[in-house]
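are you around this afternoon, could really use another pair of eyes. what follows is a protein written twice so to speak, once as letters and once as structure tokens for the fold. i want to understand how the tokens follow from the sequence so walk me through it. anything you notice is useful, everything is just below.
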Amino acid sequence: MMVGAWPIKKIEELCDVTSSKRIYAKELTRSGVPFLKSKEIIDKVNGKVIHANALFISEERYQQIIAHSGALEEGDVLLTSRGTLGVPYVIRATDRFHFADGNLTWFRNFRGLNSKFLRYWLLSPMGKAQLQTAVIGAAQQAYTIASLKKMELSYPSIVEQNRIVAILSAYDDLIENNTRRIAILEEMARRLYEEWFVHFRFPGHEDATFIDTEDGRVPEGWNAIILDDLVEDIRQTIQPSQVDQSTPYVGLEHIPRRSTTLSEWGTAESVDSTKLVFRKGDILFGKIRPYFHKVCIAPIDGICSSDTILLRARKEEFSSIALCCTSSDAFVQRATQTSNGTKMPRANWNVLKKYLVAMPPEPILTKFNKLIIAIAAQTTNLMSKNRNLRAQRDLLLPKLISGEINVSKAEEVVGGEAA
């Protein structure tokens, strides 16, 4: 079959479609080779570090598996196939992990198809339409390997695929670089807070006098206050009908894990229940399953989920210390330990508001604010650049993948090869 100048083939004609060797719960270990599910792959797609929640299999078991079915190789594609569907990830040279069968589908051994072109096709309207035909189930939707094999893909020559991939990858590379810079800047802010306010290694600490108090040993001139003295819990509610449908909406699904930089949000047209009103600069803390570590600063005005603890600094000069405190590992651990509920534990603000915070003299707080504000300005700028880059890429992607934009006369991509 032909559509214009591009042939159409079933996916199974262009690559092998399979899954992984099944792993049983009794085989999981506390260390070894990472064993990933859909949610960890999605974290990798979003450039997030996978933390302690990851599971493992032993090195010995991993070697047995790859001897039987082979290891993931650079250029292979994984597709989330249960729960959150349709998120593709291309394996990198540095990746070394095994994955849960059923959660992810494995595309490998490509024949005349650039695997990165497949990824972009899966993200395009054409690919998504094909994926929709492969969905089974109602309460728990999933893809089957058999149905994914039968999807039909329209594709150009390998040279044109390489050119298309190079154009789109240029955007993704810039986004990834900015995301990496954001992570570094956020880590700098975390370390600054820990050094100054936890370990008390602030500028001039060598000459400071330390005194013993009922709250521990602190520098002279510092005070131990509770979090409630720094921030107020905002519970201004609103109905969706009371706001413009284009109003930004932040659900818990939009707040990134262990990152204070919010880069994605929806709009009020997608909500149908009572929400909270927030302002730019407010802190949004996801109260459901607080161990997910979802804490961010709002870069915009908008509305958010009522399952958010919405905090606003009582004074502008408290904003930096409040954000660093509530996004710290120690605070999130405290929120987790004191949460209510078993299946859906929720953080308890009435307990958390009593959390002790070390408050320095004004000169030190001013220096800290200056540093954190500068970091926040950089992360916000990088986030805005990424949103623009994504918008440009998403505008180009369907036009390139469908052939609407002709790249056949473009210069050949240097080093472009089929995966």
